[in-house]
Design goal:
The protein is of the alpha/beta class and 269 residues long. The protein has one domain: 3-Layer(aba) Sandwich (Rossmann fold), CATH 3.40.50. The chain is 41% helix and 15% strand. It contains 9 helices and 9 strands. The strands form 2 sheets. It has a 7-stranded parallel sheet with strand order 3-2-1-4-5-6-9, with helices on both faces. Strands 7-8 form a two-stranded parallel sheet. α6 links the parallel β5 and β6. α5 runs parallel beside α6. The radius of gyration is 18 Å and the shape is globular. The chain starts with 6 loop residues before the first helix and ends in a 16-residue tail after the last strand. It binds NADP nicotinamide-adenine-dinucleotide phosphate. NADP nicotinamide-adenine-dinucleotide phosphate binds next to α2 and α7.
Length: 269
Amino acid sequence: MSYGRSALTRLANKTVFITGASAGIGRATAWEYAHATEGQIKLILSARRVENLKDLQDELNSKYPSIKTFIGKLDVSQKDSITPFLKTIPEEFKDIDILVNNAGKALGNAQVGSIETKDIDEIFQTNVIGLISITQAILPIFKAKNAGDIVNLGSIAGKDPYPGGSIYCASKFALRAFTESLRKELINTKIRVIEVQPGAVETEFSIVRNYGDKSKADKVYEGREPLIAEDIAELIVFSTSRKQNTVLAELLVFPSDQASASHVYKKPQ
Ligand SMILES: NC(=O)c1ccc[n+]([C@@H]2O[C@H](COP(=O)([O-])OP(=O)(O)OC[C@H]3O[C@@H](n4cnc5c(N)ncnc54)[C@H](OP(=O)(O)O)[C@@H]3O)[C@@H](O)[C@H]2O)c1
């Protein structure tokens, strides 16, 4: 995709830090930055599954020999591991320009009263505490140069809560409140705070939500035309390649068969 006449110049040689880059939207975003800059980009790619990151790194290097990538294991739910991780980032990647806070998940569809405590903890530690902790750690870099983009992966679940999603929805509401406060706090800076709020995107998200049960996950999309990870990746790259004074503050993105969290058209099978 072409992002407009100046996008390549605006993005070239920037350093992008993506959490949850081992799959889905995070992985697609790494590729999209590589395509948009023809490999003139530095990527810090983190997640728990380092083997996936290694494959991604090899594929990126083979398609774009000029690309610079640093991969590292980071479990964002372990907030005490964030500072040690950041210390392992090589010097040439340390001047981060774009932070994509993408790592996140839902677990199960249980209703209040029956939700596993460990699922509540994991969702909040990942989607909320992890994201806040990484943002806190990176923000001084942006403040020091009065520049930088923070892209947070929210969700329609952060605007439109639904039964069976209380914890995930609450986590994305928390993310949205944090994101809005941050944007207001940074009003006198050139730092942009962007929230992308997807509807249904077919990734590993539903498999994770259904504890690895692929057939249950597939049912979610039966008779539907969900977005794919690349659709969201394009919007992340688009929003961070606008001219500096343009802030795409919120991007609510649905597939055409969806109009709210639960208002979904299903074609008869
Ligand atoms: N798919 C959708 O329909 C949808 C809709 C709205 C919003 N979103 C949001 O979009 C973001 C990306 O989701 P996706 O659809 O791409 O899901 P996905 O395919 O399951 O990918 C999730 C990514 O997050 C990483 N991750 C999970 N837990 C982590 C942890 N504790 N520490 C570090 N990384 C972790 C995973 O890597 P590892 O397992 O290797 O750590 C993976 O790379 C999430 O924030 C999600 O809430 C998705």
